[in-house]
From TrEMBL:
Residues 11-302 form the NADP-dependent oxidoreductase domain. The keyword Oxidoreductase applies. The keyword DNA repair does not apply. This is Aldo/keto reductase. Pfam families: Aldo_ket_red (PF00248). Keywords: Oxidoreductase. InterPro entries: AKR (IPR020471), AKR_Detox_Biosynth (IPR050523), NAD(P)_OxRdtase_dom_sf (IPR036812), NADP_OxRdtase_dom (IPR023210). Gene3D superfamilies: NADP-dependent oxidoreductase domain.
Amino acid sequence: MTMDYLKAPTVALGTWAWGDSGETGDGYFGSRLTQAGLEEVAEKAHASGFTLWDTAMVYGMGRSETLLGEILKRYARSGYQLSTKFTPQAAGTGDDPVADMLEQSLARLGTDYIDLYWIHNPADVARWTPHLIPLLKSGKVKHVGVSNHNLSEIELANRILGEAGFRVEAIQNHYSLLYRSSEQAGILDYCRNQGIPFFAYMVLEQGALTGNYSPENPLPKGSSRAAAYNGMLPQLKALTDMLVSIGQKQDAAAPDVAIAWAIAKGTTPIIGVTKSDHVDSLVRAGSISLTGDDIAELEALADAADVNTRGWWEKEMQG
Ligand SMILES: NC(=O)c1ccc[n+]([C@@H]2O[C@H](COP(=O)([O-])OP(=O)(O)OC[C@H]3O[C@@H](n4cnc5c(N)ncnc54)[C@H](OP(=O)(O)O)[C@@H]3O)[C@@H](O)[C@H]2O)c1
């Protein structure tokens, strides 16, 4: 079988925070997003050539997918790519919970195929991975990837797909200056050697690494990200100051440099864009060049911050 493997873009767009839109939710990010504001984000992204959108059923329990589908329907389907996920913890009780969750995502997104479909986490690799095979064969899913898997779980998923002539075509893990476990566990090297794109999520640590938040101006009160990060903001100052200073030499801002770092490390960052200015940042990030010294200095300051930003849903990557 000849396979047309996934071609990864330089940067992808994340929409977890979009799940906070609507009456019920401003809980995770506390960002108070409106459809009109997000339409502007999408318009600028589209015009700037950023067309791969990452979402998941569980982002706002359908709200992120519904809003994304609503906003993207003005563009030709061939002009953008959709990435969404099967989340084992939200599986239904039918014969094929993966196919069922996919059908619901397709309906919310207003489409009949997903470009890149993920198993969201390694809850039971042997159980869930085989369910991807019929979805690939039917064409409802063009490419598949695994998220939050460690190296041995990735290899197991790859073996299962390999027996049917497919393979893991993308990895999606938490990877930022502050959280380099996938690099330390050899997953970045594995991806490079196998030619598998590595998508880095939470490169900006949900805003904590942008330099825009500080003890005087913390992340939105009552949100989950405030609970996770506000206590560590004082330790991040030296690092965000360095991001600012490296950026100044290239007409760029701190978040642009943090994103450029992830690109320089060979990954495709998935950036959770909530404002149209964030798209300008992605454009600038793509043209920043970081020296080996810049990278070493940033990583040393990140280590010196001595914080652990592992998400509550993540396991250690070693093992
Ligand atoms: N597979 C998984 O388990 C998993 C887990 C987490 C995330 N993800 C994916 O990865 C994406 C990214 O993660 P994330 O959204 O949690 O966090 P993130 O990208 O690290 O940070 C997003 C936040 O940073 C701010 N921001 C974004 N772009 C900016 C820019 N250019 N300049 C300044 N501030 C900027 C926004 O905050 P304000 O609104 O406050 O400005 C935004 O809500 C998610 O949306 C999701 O698609 C996947």
